[in-house]
Amino acid sequence: MELLIDLETIMADLDILAAYTEAPAPAVTRLIYGEAEVRARAYVRARCLASGLEVREDGLGNLFARWPGREPQLPAVASGSHLDTAPQAGRFAGAVGVVGALEAVRALQRAGFQPRRSLELLVFAGDAPTRFGLGCLAGRALAGLVQAEQLRALQDATGRTLEDWRQAAGLAEPLEQVALAPGHYAAFIELYIEQGPLLATEGEAIGVVRAMAAATTLQLWLHGQHSHAGSTLMLERRDALLAGAEIALAVEAAALATNRPHTVATTSLFQIEPGLVNMIPGHAALTLEVREIAAEPRDHVLRSIDRAVASICARRHVTYDFQMHSSDAPVTCDPGVVEQIVRVCEDLGLPRQFMVSRTYHNSLFMAHLAPTAMIFIPCRYGDSSLTDEQVEPEHILQGIAVLAHSLARLSE
Q1: Which of 164-173, 195-204, 208-217 shows the lowest mean pLDDT across its residues?
Q2: CATH number for the domain running over 7-213+330-410
């Protein structure tokens, strides 16, 4: 089947979406439920209706646009991404997957294709953690991993709740009806720009994602002793900052010791008290994250960190408290969906590379509901979610072509 991908319309849609922003161009800032995000979602909704799709919206703001198949009672095949962004982001992350999924459906319609299973565009309401401190909010809620009462209680930095925000955005459907049952979709594919340099560096057109990393995040509080920097002798000090600095290095060492390229560990926040020039810090708070595509290597690193914290704190006479903030399960992408994507690349003559996703996407949680995979396209210089992210139109076209053919095959 030969498909005509309308690149001019795709780029025009991306330009229009980029104009819905809370920040001056070229930056794009669209926080969930903000005016820019609501307007962007309304624009996509109108484009879906103009394409003859059946549109609905749930209580969280997730948008569903369905092209009914010949056997509409069967679980649909879905694709999509998000429209919200982090502050000062670029125009492509998320938006390419939304516009791309819609164009994939339109291309199949133009070709006269009639899917057996319905095809559905899914626009996630919430990817970036900026507003409520929880990333991939939509995917977690759709998978039933966050309950309605937990959603209502989420707050932004000012104390305003998600419930207040969604009502102001005109969302009235019950949050209890957001979660979907496992098997709701026959398959799900997310088209995304690579958030790294591999495809651009190696000249590959398509990244076929076979695994998605997930993180365990820990909060660590260190309790030493505030004391004067001049009058406290070196051997008498209980310095929480130095204990934290040693721990940060131990976190790095634990990840490096695995010799696994997919193991990464980060000390992302480090706060001290009292923070005075002439005082030894008596308290420190650290946020630690370990990310992997497999649970066992990640757990091994966490055990190493636990031992290091105990040893360092004992030696420095500092006490500590640990708390697990969150822990998500890594995902292996569905082999059947991956195989279909690979075959499409071969049929289209597009060079492809197997990859892992090391950053969070809603697909990580959609895998709880359906056989799931991702398609990556190159991002120039390997920068994404940044104001100056650059994606070549040719790569967008190729990614949508692979997506459209993959959706067609999975729908039969």
Answers
A1: 195-204
A2: 3.40.630.10
Going from the C-alpha of 256 to that of each of 260, 265, 269, the distances in angstroms are: 8, 9, 20
Tell me the mean pLDDT in the region 232-239: 97
Inter-CA distances, 193 with 15, 68, 374, 392, Å:
16, 28, 10, 11
What is 214-327's CATH number, 3.40.640.10, 3.30.70.20, 3.40.50.1010, 3.30.70.360?
3.30.70.360
> pLDDT band at 296, cuts 50/70/90?
very high
Do the annotations mark residue 82 as ligand-binding? Answer: yes
| pTM above threshold 0.90 | yes
As given in the structure block, the two tokens for residue 332 are: 């292996």
